[in-house]
């Protein structure tokens, strides 16, 4: 069976890629709070939360049908 080329079983970069996906939400929250509290950038600092799905897509590929077997 050919695997769908758009999805990966293992993360890109191995353990480092999985670690990046785990750290990005914490980093995004930190940057959001830092910018909001220091310069009052609450209105646009939320865009850093877009890094969470972007990091997931880069490391694991787009969601789709993965073969389970």
Explained architecture:
- 3% of the residues are buried.
- This protein has 69 residues and is an all-alpha fold.
- It has a domain at 15-60.
- It contains three helices and no strands.
- The protein is elongated, with a radius of gyration of 16 Å.
What descriptors fit this protein?
single chain; 69 residues; mainly alpha
Short overview:
With 69 residues, this protein is mainly alpha-helical. It has 3 helices and no strands.
Layout: helices, strands, pairs:
Elements: H1 15-39, H2 42-45, H3 51-60
Helix pairs in contact: 1-3
Number of helices: 3
The shape, in one word, is elongated
Order of helices and strands: HHH
Approximate helicity band = 55-70%
* Rg over alpha carbons: 16 Å
**Low-confidence runs of at least 5 consecutive residues:** none
């Amino acid at each position: 069976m050919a695997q769908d080329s758009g999805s990966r079983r293992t993360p890109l970069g191995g353990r480092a890629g999985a670690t990046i996906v785990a750290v990005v939400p914490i980093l995004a929250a930190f940057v959001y709070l830092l910018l909001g509290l220091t310069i009052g950038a609450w209105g646009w600092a939320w865009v850093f939360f877009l890094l969470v799905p972007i990091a997931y897509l880069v490391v694991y590929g787009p969601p789709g049908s993965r073969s389970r077997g």
